[in-house]
Amino acid sequence: MTLVAWGLFLVFVFAVLAIDLFVLNKEAHTVSVKEAFAFTGVLAVLALAFSGVVYVAYDQHWLGLGLAVDAIDKQVNDGRLAAVKFLTGYLIELSLSTDNVFVIALIFQHLRIPAIYQHRTLFWGVLGALVMRGALIVVGAQLVARYHWILYLFGAFLVYTAIKLLVQKEPAEGPDETGVVKLIRRFFPVTATLQDDHFTVRLDGRLFLTPLAVALILVETTDLVFALDSIPAIFAITADPFLVFTSNVFAILGLRSLYFALAGAMDKFRYLKISLAVILAVVGLKMLLADVLKDQLGPNANLYLLVLVFLILVAGVVASAVADASAKKLDATAGARGTDAPPDIR
User: I need a surface site. Which of 56, 108, 215, 301 has the fewest CB within 10 A?
Assistant: First the structure.
């Protein structure tokens, strides 16, 4: 019966994607920031509403949900616990996806992909990401269920990733200079210019990839790399495959609209990277200290984590806004002083 729940959820996901592609974005156009924020808000409301569905479904054991013991905390997920785990997982996955947004922006910038074609690329990128993450989640859930000690490896990996994220410098090479692109060009001919919104084109009887296809492959590769961080993070919350998958899917669905909402203001979120690193560290430490935290915090441990992740994100955004306002004020003051400076009479 649980398979029916998965099937119904996938029908919902494909319905959302169909509305996005065939109704809201039937004609290729540049997605405005206002439109992106509106769609991001709609998806956030849908995620919140879905947490209500999760609450009822697990509380009433619809379609066999909420009957198995969660391998993470050894509890059977009732409605309240399942809803909290879903929302916590969704917020963590969405926050970690934010870093992905900035890398995607660099990919489009280096490959000179016009804004009018970016939505099509990200749409198909989302579909590929759903398939890849679904496979990783199935494998990860099986590993956690059979080998509980693997959670400690996940936790250590997340803490290491957080430290690396804080100390590493920005990559000197652009995405078009990476080994992935070199590998693509080694096996497939690539056109020098875009061919409208086509991913492939046939020239003189030969099939060529276009820069748009290269961008799509890079987007998929980037999501796979980020999934290696974000998938272990969700297993700090739950090993219930349905909760893990649905929280990931809602985060991925929001990735496309989040890109168009934030890509134009990347430089304004200077402290967001620090927030993401802190979230990774917190989640990793929860995995490493799960037994201690369970004894100290009791059954509300996941609720506390949800609040903490939200506060860390808010702190990063607020600190970035304050720093940006201060920088603008200093620039304005410096400009005024330069204007009022006495002329050089030498």
Answer: 56
